Amino acid sequence: MTTTNILFAGVGVMIDAEMFSLQYQKEFGVSNDEMLPFFTGDFKDCLIGKADLVEKVTPWLPKWKWAGSVEEFLDFWFKAEHNVDERMTDIVKKLKDKGIRCYLATNQEKYRTQYMKDKMGFENLFHHVFSSADIGAKKPKKEFFQFILNELKNEHRIQPHEIMFFDDTEENIDGAKELDIDAHHFTDYDSFMETIQPLLENSEEKAKNEVER
């Protein structure tokens, strides 16, 4: 393998949690029909940094039977999906010990991006967090992956085929493959380990030589 960099998706790969809206509907007795218009509408602009989540979600809270502040709502939201897969964080640490650079590549608005960095520990775990809110485009758009490729090429002279990408959504995998990224559909931990094992078996010196060549 010539892989020197790995991109990991957030939800579905590093985070194993039921979707917030489904949890919320069960707890507050709100129907999907009442929540879906927000997530298929204004929220899309929040994901690419064109709108502020606080401003966009506030008018919806009375409809969703939320009695607290918008800040409390976001805290409830982010904590509801705060279920980091410790097996995956352990693997990321081992890969980094082998000299492999590891990155998060996620579709998130700016507040949850910061939550992931600070509260989930992703700021320290990954070499960098690539978020759609910062990039201005989201997976599977070409612009999302091209931004990352440009960053890695400029900083480390990395070519697309030297980058692995793991995501639980096939559409995102297809988007990455269009730019020659070595993309893999993440279905479960065991299958992921079969793919990643050769990198873990490489000596630390060999991996470092590949990165620094």
Write up this protein:
This protein has 213 residues and is α/β, with parallel strands linked by helices. Helix content is 53%, strand content 11%. It has helices spanning 20-28, 32-39, 42-47, 53-57, 70-80, 86-97, 110-118, 122-125, 132-135, 142-156, 170-177, 189-201, 204-212, and strands spanning 5-8, 101-106, 128-131, 163-167, 182-185. A five-stranded parallel β-sheet has the order 3-2-1-4-5, with helices on both faces. α11 links the parallel β4 and β5.
What key phrases describe this protein's structure?
213 residues; alpha/beta; Rossmann fold; 5-stranded parallel sheet; 5 strands; globular
Question: What secondary-structure arrangement, pairings included, does this model have?
Answer:
Blueprint: E1 5-8, H1 20-28, H2 32-39, H3 42-47, H4 53-57, H5 70-80, H6 86-97, E2 101-106, H7 110-118, H8 122-125, E3 128-131, H9 132-135, H10 142-156, E4 163-167, H11 170-177, E5 182-185, H12 189-201, H13 204-212
Parallel strand pairs: 1-2, 1-4, 2-3, 4-5
Secondary-structure element series: EHHHHHHEHHEHHEHEHH
Question: What kind of oligomer do you see?
Answer: single chain
Return the average pLDDT rounded to an integer. Answer: 93
- Widest sheet: strand order? 3-2-1-4-5
Q: What fraction strand?
A: 5-15%
Distance between the termini: 14 Å
Outline type: globular
SS class:
alpha/beta
Q: What is the CATH architecture descriptor of the largest domain?
A: 3-Layer(aba) Sandwich
How many domains make up the 3D coordinates? 2
Instruction: Let me know the largest β-sheet.
Output: 5 strands, parallel
Q: How many strand units?
A: 5
The top level CATH class name of the largest domain: Alpha Beta
What is the CATH homology-level superfamily of the largest domain?
HAD superfamily/HAD-like
Our count of helices gives 13
Cα-atom Rg, whole angstroms?
A: 18 Å
